[in-house]
Amino acid sequence: MRYSDIEKSDTGLRGPEQRLIAMLRLWSQGPKEQDAAWRDLARRLGARRARACLKGFEDMLDLLHKHGWHVPMVLSPEATGYSEDELALARFVMAATEQRREVALAEASFLVSPAALLPLMTAASRAGLPLLCEECRSRVMGPGTVH
């Protein structure tokens, strides 16, 4: 039996998807890295938006932990590629954020049990919207623009 590579590369991820995967990777490393993620988000989005983003993110992770079909494979922050689980979560969060409901529900059905589908979509959109806004602001105002 031939196994596919764990790490996928050259996926054409957008900025918010890359940011979400970076957050997933840092979050799994512990409190010090979580604090670094918080500081970076607060610097880029402002404290209020960063807090809302992280609340949605933590709610999403809690739902995945309680209702998930399996524990998502999250690679280390130093990894150059992406796991299939990281890519699925990034696709799901963007679909939920952009109100592509059918796509988001389809993606979510592979992540959690039916009881958690709608709460997961709500949490994902709360996590993804500030990340999407960050990307939009940087396009309009230029890279490096802080809230």
Whole-angstrom Rg: 15 Å
Report the end-to-end length measured between terminal Cα atoms.
50 Å
Instruction: Indicate the structural class.
Output: mainly alpha
> Which series of helices and strands comes N to C?
HHHHHH
- The total beta strand count reads 0
Give unreliable regions as ranges.
1-6
Proportion of beta-strand residues: under 5%
Count of helical regions: 6
Largest sheet: none
- Share in helix: 55-70%
Task: State mean pLDDT (0 to 100 scale).
Answer: 86
| Shape by Cα distribution | globular
Show the helix and strand layout:
Blueprint: H1 15-27, H2 31-45, H3 47-67, H4 84-97, H5 101-109, H6 117-141
Helix pairs in contact: 1-4, 1-6, 2-3, 3-6, 4-5, 4-6, 5-6
Describe what is shown at a glance.
This protein has 147 residues and is an all-alpha fold. Helix content is 66%, strand content 0%. The N terminus is likely disordered.
